[in-house]
Amino acid sequence: MLEAREITKYRVDRVSKKPIKILDHCNLMLEKGKTLGLMGKSGCGKSTLAKILLGLLMADTGEVLFEGHSFRQFNRLQWKRFRKKVQFISQSPETFFDPRLTLRTSLFEPFTVYGLRRNGGRQEIVEKYLSLVKLQPTVLNRYPHQLSGGEIQRLSICRALLLEPEILILDEPTSMLDISVQAQILQLLRKLKNEKNLTCLFISHDRAVLEWFCDKIECLENGRTQGRTLS
Amino acid sequence: MQGALDSADFRVERLNVIFRVHSETLRVINDVTIVFPYGKTVGIIGESGCGKSVLGQALLGLLPNYAEVKGHIFYKDMDILCVPFSKVQPYLGSEWGVIPQSPTEALNPIRNIRKQFNDIGKNAGDRFFSKQELCDILELFGLQDGERILKTYPHELSGGMLQRVLCAMAVCGNPRWVLADEPTKGLDMESSACVRENLQKLRNVKTKSMIVITHDLTLAKSLCDEIVVMYAGEIIEVNDKLWSEPLHPYTQAVLKALPENGFQAMHGRSPGTNILTTGCKFASRCVCAQEKCQQEHPDLYNIDVSRVRCFLYA
Amino acid sequence: MKKKKFNDVSFILAVFILTMILVSGIMATFITPYNPFQPDMLHRLQSPSIEHWFGTDVLGRDLFSRILFGSRSTIFLALLSSFLPLLLGTLIGTLAGYYGKRIDSFVVLLSNVFQGIPSTCFMIAIVGFLGPSLSSLLLGFLLTSWVGFSRIIRAEVLKMKEEAFVEGLTCIGCSDFRIVFFHIIPNIFNSLLVLGTLRIGRSILSLAGLSFLGLGVQPPMPDWSVMVSDAILYYRSYPHLILIPGCSIFFLVYSINIIGETLGDFLDVRIDEVRKCRGL
Predict the structure, then answer these.
(1) Domain range spanning residue A187?
(2) Which residue among B178, B255, C2, C210 is least packed, with the fewest CB closer than 10 Å?
(3) For the sheet containing B24-36, what is the strand order?
(4) Is there a single domain that holds both residue B188 and residue B58?
(5) Which residues of A fall below an 8 Å CB-CB distance to B?
(6) 3-state DSSP assignment of residue C18
């Protein structure tokens, strides 16, 4: 479904001003309905690889294929279709929503972007997904800074699911959360991915979490993907 | 109490801290009474928002000016909450060492490491640290080329090295106490292990009186003699055998949520600090809750040397 | 600095002053006791008195009437000469900050060119070349001041672009246009407000300088800056000629700045709240 082939990415080091290779001919394949884990220590390039897979960054060499078509050949329509089908959940929940807008505006935004449900029905759909993530509709009236990290993370899961995606890319979604909240979010994510048969890429440095959540785990070391370890 | 006025314990009595934000009143710390005895390493654990960081700030006299504070915190013969900051400031760096969160952001980016050590010395009673002294301390934490590191700026060092530098800065004044605020927040397994190692070294070589504020249970387990559990601004358990015999239902549920126990989640969320509840604050989420728990607020009950705030132990 | 609130004395005073100035400008035709354009050489250079509350100027025109009428042109020019360059600077700065690379390099080059030219000379050249008129004045202000705004806005946009929520918006499919106009610009609106209001004072004074050179608002149209520059020759013997329009300018600029600051602090309140909530 989503595949990265021979991805190489350089970054310019701030101090020495020399280019450093962060990713070195990486290969990653997301299979339909399965969950792949990506493990590696902080700063090894996992987030960079995720952003390349999402089209937020462009690789220096190599290509990313979505349903057989390379990103480099995408036109605007294909990008819009891609964005609808592939959603992202990041690791810093506090900064994930526009701090000036109420959460209602932020959650309704996907509808506006795709021109869906213009004649109403937005509130019902949002409430349906809010109950899936176990939140009350009253949170819609609040601002991001008024909620805890766990609640914001649930809301970002909610917003990601609104567009009914097929692929979910999660970049260390629970690393900033407490143990008890982490357990809640992980249980929720596992339930949702099973119910909706989602394809997931779960990025983390925590082996225990990956072994519990994922079908297969890929390690990223020194910028190279090593080959699969089965969980 | 014998020698109470001279003892280097931190004695917190009936501490209440309130923040008045724009439209709401946030009761961050509710009626906390506890002693941190000199010579013991105490861990304060709890979720985000339970008040542990604010407690740490209060102990060091670093509460923001918009905080409304009631109660006392005694250190030797001083009530930290009643004296102006100028009386408290000399203790920072000399008697109290602090290891703040986020090593990459904790240091002044435009002063090199040597100068920042000098700043600490100046504040700690105009002490001057010789290069040799500083290199020795840095070596203690595994940084061999101390001379080179003293000349560098924070952005030239990796996160791990900065962490060690911060540990060194905390102990350079030979403090009696070290307070570490969430030292492993957001770090991966390897870096967390590094931090644990550094803090162990600190504890073995420099001082055994430490207060570690964290929600990383592995760190607390490996380092602390005694654990204080906070929930919604209150202390709900004080236990030195927390891992083998957790007393409070909340603590038991948190241990069940650990990876080794299968990430068993408890339902609900902790009450917001702006909500006034009667009864036990954990009652709505507690599997053992009875009617009494919703209506009456439990005290801290003594079980041997431990204390727990739950009617199950009344 | 203590944060300003809507119930501060300075804010209420500022609103009062600005309202008075605006109302008097609008109602000028009805409330002026004398014709501000009518010279009266018999009564020239009179000090403030019962008949002429602010005295008369060098041509015998009632100063009070001229002040009332003058507020129109002063405020109009002051606002436009700040907000037009702000608009242009925001547009250019946002494009440069958001898209980066070649567009950014081009904008930086353009900024360096424009900033290298001394602004007063440039203003004089433009106004002198096109002839003194409202549009040439505004064009002059536009071309000399957009760069300052553009630089600051570019920096703010660069910072905003790195925020996690912008990534999130791209992922849910938001177009660049939507991200910039519905999310980034509202978040930097506070800075825009402050920059704009600060600029107003400088514009009015620039205008006074231009008027002195004969390139500002043309007579007989009354304008406070013109009145200040006209009075320079007489200020020793007739200080009221310079003090009164000078004070009017001062009050106008003061009230606009206080209102801008208070609005800015009000918008900042949320940032304060965020900090306090996070302090837990």
Answers:
(1) 30-58+75-230
(2) C2
(3) B24-36, B10-21, B67-75, B78-79
(4) yes
(5) 14-15, 41-43, 148-151, 175-184, 186-187, 205-209, 212
(6) helix
Cis, peptide link before residue C220, omega less than 30° from 0: yes
pLDDT per residue as tens, chain A (231 positions): 888 888 888 887 766 778 888 888 888 888 888 999 998 877 778 888 888 999 888 888 888 988 888 888 888 888 888 988 999 998 877 678 888 888 888 898 888 888 877 667 888 888 888 888 888 888 888 888 778 778 888 898 998 888 889 999 999 888 878 888 888 889 989 998 899 999 999 998 888 899 999 988 988 887 787 766 655
- Which is it for strands B306-308 and B234-239: parallel, antiparallel or unpaired? antiparallel
Q: Let me know whether B29 and B169 are in one domain.
A: yes
A128 found inside a domain: yes
Rounded to whole angstroms, how far apart are CA atoms C226 and A216? 78
| Res C238 pLDDT > 70 | yes
- Give chain A positions within 8 Å (CB) of C273: 145
What is the CATH code of the structural domain delimited by C9-35+43-278? 1.10.3720.10
Burial of C82 (0-12, 13-18, 19+ CB in 10 A): buried
In a domain, B4, yes or no: no
> Positive or negative CA dihedral for C30, C31, C35, C37?
negative
CA-based nearest distance B48→chain A, Å = 7
Chain B residues closer than 8 Å to A183 by CB: 257, 263-266
Name B124's Cβ contacts closer than 8 Å, sequence gap at least 6.
B90, B92, B93, B94, B173
Length of chain C: 280
Chains that touch A (3 or more CB pairs under 8 A): B, C
Report the residue of chain C nearest B52, measured CA to CA.
C280
Pick the residue of B236, B250, B269, B286 with the most A CBs within 10 A to test the interface with A by mutation: B269
Residue B178's nearest CA partner among B15, B40, B18 is: B40
Output the pLDDT for position B1: 43
Q: What is the largest CA-CA distance in chain A?
A: 56
The model carries a pTM of 0.80
CA-CA-CA-CA dihedral for A218, A220, A225, A230, to nearest 10: -20
Q: Which helix (H) or strand (E) holds C203?
A: helix C185-212
Token pair of A54 as six digits: 């999402």
Cβ of C167 and A90 within 8 Å? yes
Domain assignment of residue A183, yes or no: yes
Alpha helices in C27-163 (DSSP H): 28-31, 63-99, 101-116, 119-130, 134-161
What domain range includes position B184? Answer: 10-231
A70 - beta bridge partners?
A65
Q: Chain A contacts of C190, Cβ < 8 Å? A: none
Confidence category of residue C275, pLDDT binned at 50, 70, 90: low
